[in-house]
Specification:
Blueprint lengths: L2 H12 L5 H5 L5 H10 L11 H9 L4 E4 L1 H21 L31 E6 L2 E6 L6
Antiparallel strand pairs: 1-2, 2-3
Length: 140
């Protein structure tokens, strides 16, 4: 086995990831940074256990709610179309279905989750971080 591959696997298991502020070279709010790093915790017990837990962490960020649903839809519309076009141009086998984001660039928000017929999706965005979560009709 390649020594560099083994070293990379060891780093993945042991090393704490750089903070988003370090990686970006600009400040990210402590609340947003904390939410993102919580998702990368090595211990499963330290990660957000549910989408609701993650949503609550993201809602603490000062930029929470700075994007409207219309802003998020417009962003996804522009980027999904360009990803499908790029995938087709490169001869990729990626599907051109609207929800497919398999060819997402490193700078894009996380892919949208598909919603099940029993749980319609509500899309919100927190400071450029698009999140999709199921809506519980009983609370509406």
């Amino acid at each position: 086995m390649n020594a560099k591959f083994v070293e990379l696997c060891q780093q993945h298991v042991v090393n704490v990831p750089d903070s988003p502020s370090q990686r970006l070279g600009r400040t990210v709010s402590a609340e947003l940074e904390s939410a993102l790093l919580a998702c990368l915790e090595k211990s499963r017990a330290k990660r957000p256990q549910t989408a609701r837990d993650l949503s609550e962490l993201l809602d603490r960020a000062p930029t929470a709610g700075s994007w409207s649903l219309d802003d998020a839809e417009a962003w996804w519309g522009r980027h999904e179309r360009s990803q499908v076009t790029a995938a087709g141009a490169s001869g990729s086998a990626a599907s051109s279905s609207p929800g497919n984001t398999t060819s997402a660039s490193p700078n894009s928000p996380p892919a949208r989750a598909s919603s099940s017929p029993s749980a319609p999706a509500a899309r919100t965005s927190t400071g450029g971080f698009d999140q999709t979560m199921a809506v519980d009709d009983r609370k509406a």
